[in-house]
Structure formats: C-alpha cells, structure tokens
Design a protein that fits this description.
Largest sheet of chain B: none
Oligomer: heterodimer
Organism (chain A): Coemansia aciculifera
Strand order of the largest sheet of chain A: 1-2-4-3
Protein name (chain A): 60S ribosomal protein L25
Structural class of chain A: alpha+beta
Radius of gyration of chain A: 38 Å
Largest sheet of chain A: 4 strands, antiparallel
Number of helices of chain A: 5
Number of strands of chain B: 0
Shape of chain B: elongated
Strand content of chain B: under 5%
Distance between the termini of chain B: 76 Å
Keywords (chain A): Ribonucleoprotein, Ribosomal protein
Number of helices of chain B: 6
Radius of gyration of chain B: 29 Å
Order of helices and strands of chain A: HHEHEHEEH
Protein name (chain B): 60S ribosomal protein L35, L29
Largest interface: A-B, 21 and 27 residues
Structural class of chain B: mainly alpha
Helix content of chain A: 25-40%
Keywords (chain B): Ribonucleoprotein, Ribosomal protein
Distance between the termini of chain A: 115 Å
C-alpha cells in the first residue's frame, strides 16, 4: 500500500475507535435554563377567494358628519362675536372628522373645534374659524343665516 | 325629481360616484335651508333626494357585484356573499349527485334485475 493510503486507513480506524461509526448526536448548547418559544416560519395570507365581493362604502363620509348648522340666538351670537360656527354633528364623528368635513364641504379651515354631546344625544360642534375668515360670510355662503 | 334608474345604469362607476356626490350635496343644502326657513324648502323634496341617493348607491353596488361575479365565474371558490344563501342546513346537506351515488354492487343488481312492469290483458 502507498504511504498515503496507509495513513488514511490508520486515521479512519483511529476515528472509528474513538468516536464510533454511526455518527454522533449533535447536542445544542443551552445557555439559559428557560425554554423560550422558538421562532418558526410565519407565512403571509394568500386567500383563494375574497370573503366580501365588493367593499362597502365608508358610512361616515363628510356628508354624514355635519348634519345641520344651528341658528339659535346663542349660535348667532357665537358667529358674530367669536367667529365660530355651530353645527350639529354625527355622534360618531370626532374633531378630526369634523375638521376634514368642514374643509371638504365648505373649503374653510377650522382654527379649533370644541364638541359636546347634548342631553338629547346629538353632538354639537363649535367650529372656530381663523381670524382672516369671517364666520358671518361663511354662514351666508352656506345659506343658513 | 326622481332619478330614472335606467339612466343611472348606463353610467360608469366614476360617473355614478359623481352623481352620488351631487345628490348628497343637494341633500345637505336642503337641510341647511330647512334650518334657515322651512317655507322655501319643501319637505317632500328632502324625501325625494334621499331616495335618489339610495337609488344611486344601489346601482353602484349592483354594478360592482356584477363585475365581481363575471370575474369569478367558473372558478372553484367565489366570495361567500355571492354564493347561494339558502339555509345553513341546506348548504351543508349532501348534493343531489352525492345522494344519487350507488355502489357498484347495487348498480349491477339494478342493471341485471330491473323492476318489471306487467299488464294483464283484459
């Protein structure tokens, strides 16, 4: 036998004697005593069919938010003195909804909005307009003076 | 003024949403007018405009669903709200073909020994 072949044979024999011929079990080294949830593969959804055929419209669109303006005596006072408009508003609307609705429907920015819920369950919004816009003009333009 | 649904059905989705906007605007203006002074705005007009909004929305939904139906026709799985509603029990029941299934043994028996009909000559 050639010297190389002889040495490899000897080496494999040595290995077999020390480590056995079946192969060894690889034991994972655990550095903590706790067994935490292993991270597994999480696939994204790939539905075979849409559950709903056509999506529904948003029920609280800008037309549903503002219900009607108020023209009571107190409300008129607010328009003249405080440059605010007073609106009755959907209960589910929040100040952001109201601001967007006013912007889209009447093209007016709101400086700030205060809301309250009246005892009869309807939400009232005091929409303060910025100083450069006149609330009386806007009210005339809307048409409820 | 009642909008004619036949006219609505000819429009495209974009045009329909525009029409919808227009009617909702009209409704809003009417409501404002009511607050201002009820004499000018007729209360019947509000009703008509509300119904018009409903008609436009109906046509929009019908068209959208029709589009989806055409798109999924022939496929194995279709959206659940396009499937036949029937009742929960009926949907889970065996289909006609499943009920009519026979074993080979039974089929052979029926083939070889069919029910005979006899008539007595008067």
């Amino acid at each position: 036998m050639s010297p190389q072949k002889a040495s490899t044979k000897a080496q494999t024999a040595r290995k077999a004697a020390l480590k056995g011929t079946q192969g060894q079990k690889v034991k994972k080294i655990r550095t903590t005593s706790a067994f935490r949830l292993p991270k597994t593969l999480r696939l994204a959804r790939k539905p075979k069919y849409e559950r709903k055929a056509a999506p529904r419209f948003a029920t609280l669109d800008q037309y549903s938010v503002l219900k009607q303006p108020l023209n009571t005596e107190t409300a008129m006072k607010k328009i003249e003195d405080d440059n605010t408009l007073v609106f009755l508003v959907d209960v589910r609307a929040n100040k952001r909804h109201i601001k967007d609705a006013v912007k889209k429907l009447y093209d007016v920015d709101a400086a700030k909005i205060n809301t309250l819920i009246r005892p009869d369950g309807i939400k009232k919004a005091y929409i303060r307009l910025p100083a450069d816009v006149d609330a009386l003009d806007v009210a005339n333009k809307i048409g409820f003076i | 003024a009642k909008v004619k649904v036949a006219n609505l059905r000819e429009k495209s989705q974009a045009e329909l949403t525009q029409t919808l906007d227009q009617y909702k605007r009209e409704l809003m203006d009417l409501k404002v007018q009511q607050v201002a002074g009820a004499a000018a705005a007729k209360s019947s007009k509000v009703r008509d405009v509300r119904r018009n909004v409903a008609r436009v929305l109906t046509v929009i939904t019908q068209q959208a669903r029709q589009e989806v139906r055409e798109k999924v026709s022939g496929k194995k799985y279709i959206p659940k709200d396009l499937r036949a509603k029937k009742t929960r029990a009926l949907r889970r029941a065996l289909t006609k073909s499943e009920l009519a299934r026979k074993t080979l043994r039974q089929q052979k028996k029926e083939d070889n020994f069919p029910v005979r009909e006899f008539a007595i000559k008067a």
